Amino acid sequence: MQIEKPRPKRRLPTWFRVQAPGSAKYLELKRLIRGFGLHTVCESARCPNIGECWNSGTATFMILGDICTRSCGFCAVKTGRPEGLDLEEPERVAEAVRHLGLRHAVVTSVNRDELADGGAQIFAETIRSIHRLCPNTSVEVLIPDFQGNWDALALVLEAGPEILNHNVETVPRLYKWMRPQARYEQSLELLRRAKVLRPDIPTKSGMMVGAGETFSEVQETIGDLADQGTDILTVGQYLQPSPAHLPVDRFYHPDEFATLKHLAKGLGFDHVESGPLVRSSYHAAEQVERV
User: Fold this and answer.
1) How buried is 181 (Cβ within 10 angstroms: 0-12 exposed, 13-18 middle, 19+ buried)?
2) Which end of the chain has a smaller Cβ tally under 10 Å, C or N?
3) 156-173, pLDDT tens digit by residue?
4) DSSP state of 176
C-alpha cells in the first residue's frame, strides 16, 4: 500500500446519518468547555458524533493540551511540540464533570512522548479529582501507549478508573501509515499487563475499518484483542478528516459491522459496539453499565 498524494474525500453512503450540532444543549456545553479552558477530542479529532453527544450533554475531555507529539495518518489532532503542563487541569476537568452532572466521564489525551511518564501523573490526578468531587461518577480513561513505560501504566491503574481503554486503531499491516510512531505488539502488551496489574478493572480497545485492511485481518485483530482478555470492543468506520489524511479505501455495510459484532461476542467480549459511526467513547455510559 502506497499513498502518492492526497485524494479527495469519498461521498458518504446513504446509511450515514448524523445529528447536526447547534442545539441549546450543544451551545451550553461549548461555552462550558471554553469557560473551563479545556479541550475535547470531539472537536480536535472532528468526530462525526459531536452533534448527538453534545446535544445529550456528553463529551470526551482531552487533557495534556491539544498538540500531539505524533502524526498518525487518521487523526485530525494538531501535531507539534507541546509547551509545558497545566497542573490545574485535573481539577478543572472534575469541576466540569460536576457542572454537567455526568454519571460517566471519559478522559483521553494527546500523546506527550517528550514527558518521561507520557502524562500518566496528570491522568491519575484527573481520575482522583473526579472521584473526589463526583463520587457517583464512573471514570473511563483512553490512554496512549506511554512508549512501553509500564510504571506509567501502573500509575494510572492505581488511581482506580472504572474502565481502562487503549485503542489498537487498525490492523498491524497498516501501522506504518496509520500509527507510524506506535507498535501493534506494544499496544497488545499494554492491554495484557493492565489485566495482570488490575484484573478488577475492565479493559477496552477499539479499531477503525475501511482504511485498506482485509476482512480477515480485522477478524485476526479482534482475536488478538480477545487473547489479551479485553472486555469491551468498539469497531467503527474510518472517515478521512481532511484530504491530507489517509484516504478511505471502502465503506463497510452495516451488515458487515453486525457480522463483526457477532464474531467478537463469540470470542468472549463482554460488550461490543460495532457500526459505521461507532467511536471509542460512543455510548460509553451505556457500556460501563452493561459491563
Assistant:
1) middle
2) N
3) 999 999 999 999 999 999
4) H
Strand 232-237 relative to strand 271-274: parallel, antiparallel, unpaired? Answer: parallel
Spatial contact of 248 and 210, defined as CB atoms under 8 Å apart: yes
Round to whole Å and give the CA distance between 141 and 87: 18
d(CA 64, CA 253): 36
Residue type for 73, please? G
Q: How far apart are CA 203 and CA 91, in angstroms?
A: 25
Exposed/middle/buried for residue 197 (C-beta within 10 Å: 0-12, 13-18, 19+) = middle
State how far the Cα of 100 lies from the Cα of 25, in Å rounded to an integer.
11
Q: Which residues contact 174 (CB under 8 A, 6 or more apart)?
A: 1, 211, 212, 213
Q: Which residues of the chain have pLDDT under 50?
A: 1-6, 44-45, 51, 54
pTM for the model stands at 0.86
Q: What single DSSP character describes residue 169?
A: B
User: CA-CA distance, 27 to 11, in Å (whole number)?
Assistant: 28
Contact indicator for 120, 150 with CB cutoff of 8 Å: no
Question: Are 273 and 231 a contacting pair, CB within 8 Å?
Answer: no
Handedness of CA 109, 110, 113, 114 (dihedral sign): negative
Contact between 204 and 234 (Cβ < 8 Å) = yes
In whole angstroms, give the CA distance from residue 255 to residue 5.
32
Domains annotated for the chain, with CATH where assigned, are: 24-290 (3.20.20.70)
DSSP one-letter code for 108: E
Cell of 90: 485535573
3-state secondary structure of 14: coil
Which SS3 state, helix, strand or coil, does residue 125 take? Answer: helix
